Amino acid sequence: MATVKQHSLLTDYDIDLIRMGKHFRLYKKMGSHPMQLDGEWGTLFSVWAPSALEVSVMGNFNFWNEKSHPLTVRQDGSGIWEGWIPGVGKGTLYKYSIQSRDGRRLAKGDPFARFWEVPPNTASIVWDPYYEWKDDKWLKERAKKAGKPQPYSVYEVHLGTWKKKPDGIHSFSYKELIDELVPYVKEMGYTHVEFMPVMEHPYFPSWGYQVTGYFAPTSRFGFPEDFMALVDAFHQEGIGVLLDWVPSHFPYDAHGLADFDGTHLYDHADTRKGFHPDWKSAVFNYGRWEVRSFLISNALYWLDEFHCDGLRVDAVASMLYLDYSRKDGEWLPNEYGGKENLEAISFLKEFNEMVHREYPDVVTIAEESTAWDGVSKPVSEGGLGFDQKWMMGWMHDTLRYMQQDPLFRKNHHHELTFSLIYAFTEKFMLPLSHDEVVHGKGPLIDRMPGDEWTRFAGLRAMYGYMWTHPGTNLLFMGGEFGQTTEWNIERGLEWWLLKHDFHQGVQAWMKDLNRYYQSSKALYEKQFEDEGFAWIEHADYQNSIITYVRKGEKPEDQIVVACNFTPVARENYRFGVPLSGEWKEVLNSDDKKYGGKGVVNAKPVKSEKEEKHGFKQSIALTIPPLSTIILEPVAKKAKKAAAPKKAKAKK
Asked: Which of 314, 397, 512, 540 is the catalytic position?
């Protein structure tokens, strides 16, 4: 056997923290770490496998010999195996060879590996990323804004399919995306980009949601340092980076976490708790302290090492409920006989507390589709501690409404307005995500009935309504220019569509909406507060028109929004306004530059002392067909009183 020296980065204090589930920087102590020992270079390996009889490191350095480089189990009962192997350095391929108690020999990747082979190959790679960050200005600004209202206009991206190279097959690398994606997101005016999971995953069509390498950006697009450079490039352009994070389940691939030491180490042995029927994957055991430390360490890793600005947590509903997607007899109740997953609830609260303790300026966002109370309330107030929650109800109701023929929308008016009944019960993000353009649902433009003009006008009107509705916004790539086919994991977006006027118009509308959203305090200062919104008229179902006010902190920071969801222009339409004086139209989705008919209110409209909708002042103007218009009060300029002329002296 080759020489494997006993060495450890773990102290007794570390072990105590792991046993209590309170070690949240495990990646610094476990996995593979190139380092010097007694003047010689090698790599220290550390892996948790408490039920294993033997653990060895095999790789291209020892011709994948299963037994030549055995690790030693710690004598403290932690189940951690360790050893320093000389001559093994950065770039070495390796796996753990694990002898299970039932006689099997397992070949496992490193749960803490920072780099993996390009799939379908499955070896871990010894790696020690080094990158010189240049985003100090961004991080300082982020810290200054912590806890303050700020706009979130998020562009959701799947890195592998945003754009393909000219051959139509190969994706852009992280480095190439710096030149392609970063300037595009900047030009479009988004405040943030959200990446669908970048963590290493074996199956590309899983979209990244079946993770095997939790601590490694996928090697399909380059090195970890290249991904760091991509994040850095966004930061230097003033754009935040959010990551999809998947602590809800993991796949059964032979080299992954499942059956890691021959037992259900990371999941539950009982399939009624440990198997997810929707995704045919394993469910993490949140009651096991080592698993909690692993997951929270992973969350902090992406914030520590990759400077990410937030985590969108996938499938939170599946974590909260023991009976999620399960029939009677397929799930186990909690200790009180209920369906709530108490261990997962405790885990989510601790995850949020730790993230916000370490990074008060980072956001966590829950994809949570049920009526669970307090998802975005602080843990100290009995909530789960997320900063925002996806508003799935708004998404379903709005798309269902928009699919109706405009002639019949008056019969579905309540679907358009219902969201405001509960809009302030959580801090909501309005999502039109990848989930709405897959599995036969088609692209968003196909939800719009009618001829070509009507469809594109409806899409623009819906986006205008979305961007002015209380809450923050997320739109999946391609939606911003009216992609005409369903998103396909094997193809890039249809960028050629931008040769056509209607698609250019939607894109131009989204640019202007994003820029206005960032500049309008009325749209983001009170986006989570009921004081920031007031209906003008929500019951005009006959005309399918809604009008409302959005408000900022100052009384003068108010805007009025009018949406017309029929293809008929409404002339001399009168509605109340909160301030007297002139109101000017600042955005109109029917403007010709967006592909509209050009029915605009070119001149400011002066309010009149005619009570309407509970307001003392009202205005009358034209609301274009299938449109959203935004009005601002005209600022009153103070005029100096003219000085009296001096009388001429009499001679």
From this structure: 314
